Structure formats: structure tokens, C-alpha cells
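Progress narrative, Year 2. Work on Cytochrome c1 from Ignatzschineria rhizosphaerae advanced from sequence curation to structure prediction during this period.
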Amino acid sequence: MRKIVTLLASCLMLMTAANAQSSEELTAQALKKLGNPQINVSNHESMQSGARLYMDYCLACHSLEFQRYNITARDMGLQEEDIQKLINTGSYDPREAEFIRSKDGDLIYTAMDRRDAQVWLGVAPPDLSTIARAKGPDYVFKYLLSFYEDESRPTGMNNIAFPNAGMPHVLAELQGTNKPVIQQVAIGECDLEKPEACQFEDVVVGLEKVQDGAMTDLEYRKAVNDLTTFLTYVAEPAQLERAKYGPWVLGFLVIFTILAYALNREYWKDVK
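Result:
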């Protein structure tokens, strides 16, 4: 009798695990359909396009406080006279009664005060200097692609990669809007042959376009790829220098190995 009870309990646990896994697998499959970014931080055109998008759509809330305008422009291949084209922020000078733009060497801060943001939004939007390193470029890419309409959310939008995200879909005018494709999955211990006794949850397994944006789907994917490339560079600007020194380091190691081998043969050639 004890063995039978143990067996039934094991079956129920496996059923619960299977349901939970099914929900996670469906979400993972939905994200997999979005594809992966093609990151190349040495592509100046892609970096400049991503930086322009960031300044226009993200910097109103999210700083890059470990990055300076002039260093960013240099690494993207911009000329000194073009640095000001990147700068959208600054401050109002009441004595001069005019808007003073940020300087070339300033750190890239949002114009929104964090204390005001705390009051207005409930929580200050995070700095995104290291988001691509913390979460990975794949996450950033899929997050920006997977917004969908959800009337239950305060912003009217939700996200597959980050469910219940507080951020609105700021790129909606470019992408357009999508509605979710829903599949129901049983919750917890449940006999699926008696669905009336089960509880179900909705899982988003895909997206369906309901309104076009200013870009086609292909153009929007490229724009998001550029933005992800820019954030990947910002997360570790030194990777450009590291890639530059890489061939020299490998060349040194090859030459050192040859010399070490020749020296070893010279020392041991008379030893029997």
C-alpha cells in the first residue's frame, strides 16, 4: 500500500513538473522564434545608427553614466565636429535664459532627475551602461522585439522576454503594435482528461502584427540589432582595444614558442 501511495505521489509531482516545464518551454520557443542579434562593434555604421536611436528614444529616461560623448564618438568613427550631433541633453540657464547643451567631454546622463523619476514613475529607470554585459545581447535584442498589447498593464503593453515590464514600448512608432498569440497551459496537479477540474494559465507563444509602424519588420530588426550593438559596445568599450591587440599577442606567442623550441633542442642535443 505504501509503495502504491509513493508511486501516485511521484506521478503527481512529475505531472506538476511537466506542466511547469511546458509553460517555460513555450516561452523559450516563442523567444527562439525572434532569432539572435548579429553583433559587430567594429561596424561604425551600425554603431552610429544604434547610438542615434538610443539618443532619440532611450536617453530621456536611461543614462549611460560610465560613457562620455567624445569617447563614444571617437570609437564610432565620428569626426570631432560631428560630436554635437549626438548630444540631445543639457540644462536651462536662468541667468542667460537659454538652453545650454552638454559638452563634448560630459558623461552621458539623462536630463531626468532621479528623484523626480522616483516620484513620477515609482522607481527611477536604471542606467543601461552595463545592461548588455549583465543580461547579454540576446536578451536586449529579444526584449526590444517582443512587446505586445496587454490592456491589464498600466502602459497597455507587456513583454515576452520580461513579463510585466514597467517600461512602455518606446519604439512602437517604428515597429507598430503586436497582439499576443495565446496558448493555455494547466497549472499544478491536474488530470487533463477532466479539464473542468483544472486551472489554466495563458502563455504567450507568438506575436501577430495588428498595426504597422514606420519601419518594415526587416528594417525594425536591423534597427534593434544596431541598438543592441551600440549597447554591447557601451557595456565594454575596451573590447575594441582588446581586439586590436589580439593578433599581436598571438603573433608574439607563436614566435616565442618557436624560439623556446629551438633553444630547448640546442640545450639537449648533446645529452644522451
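Strands lie at 64-68, 90-93, 98-101, 107-108, 147-149, 157-159, 176-187, 199-212. Residues 186 and 195 are 9 Å apart (CA to CA).
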